[in-house]
Amino acid sequence: MARILYKYLDIKGAKGMIGNQNLQFTNASQLNDPFDCHPRLMDYSAVPDDDKSDWVPKEWWQKKRENDALNRRNETWLCSLSKVCDSILMWCHYCYNHKGVCIGLDIDKVMASVPPMFGSLYLEPFVIDVQYQDIIERPDAYQAKEGLYLYQWRTKAKEWEYEQEVRLVMPKPSPEFAAFTKDQADHPKEMWDGREIRHYMPLEGECFESIYFGVHIDPAERDKIIQYAHTKLNPQIKLYQMRVDENAFRLKPEIL
Question: SS3 of 6, please?
């Protein structure tokens, strides 16, 4: 059975993703949560004996490990998806007050369409289910059974749990797939921080499994997307209009 993950977008972002048939990856340091992939999520103070010596102090090794984690964050790009398509908060926060769309992606087909050179180090992105927790005491970085990278990439505060996020994580994506957003291109700066640049992974049309239209979407914009999706994207794509459930605080999709 296909695993479908969802991308919530305003109408401008949705038209860009559908029209260009790609998936945007953003640097881990540029996300809306400043704690995302933060290097201090873990405790690096318990330096192992193997890393100690008479001429290199413990503090130097601790600082080095923390700096490695910072570099790892700055060199990682990711794409945030969700396990659900009917989150009221997600529709409000990411779809411009229910005026945008939610795109369903067949994740197996997405991974099958990753170009050979998208990553400089790895062949394809990691697919990671985010884990939400309160950090009462930071875990020992040197005792992390699943590895430092995974913990840093997957951990978020419990306040974000409603998003049910799944991440596609790409360390050091190839510069070949880097590009400015339209807003960046329209407002050039003299100097750019490389972390501000997005990377775009091309998708085959069959990756687009479904499109859900927001309760308050402009009907004219909806009709344009429907026409394009059926003729140029994926003739088998499923289309839904989100409606307000009059008997509960929830959204329900109505097939078109």
Answer: strand
